[in-house]
Amino acid sequence: MGTVYSSILPNHVEFIRKQRIFFVGTAPLLEDGHVNISPKGHDVMQIFSPTEVAYLDLTGSGNETSAHLKDNGRITFMFIAFEGPPMILRLYGKGKVILPGTPEWDDMSKHFDILPGTRQIIHVEIETVKTSCGFSVPFYSYNGERDTLQQWAANKSEEDLEEYRKKKNSISMDGIVTPIGDRITKKFLLNYHENNYLQD
Question: What DSSP letter does each residue of the chain carry, written as one string?
Answer without folding.
Answer: --EEESS--HHHHHHHHH-S-EEEEE--SSTTPPPEEEEE-SS-EEEEETTEEEEEEE--S--HHHHHHHHT-EEEEEEE-SSSS--EEEEEEEEEEE-TTSHHHHHHGGGS-PPTTEEEEEEEEEEEEEEE--TTPPP--------HHHHHHHTS-HHHHHHHHHHHSSB-TTSPBPHHHHHHHHHHHHHHHHHHHHH-
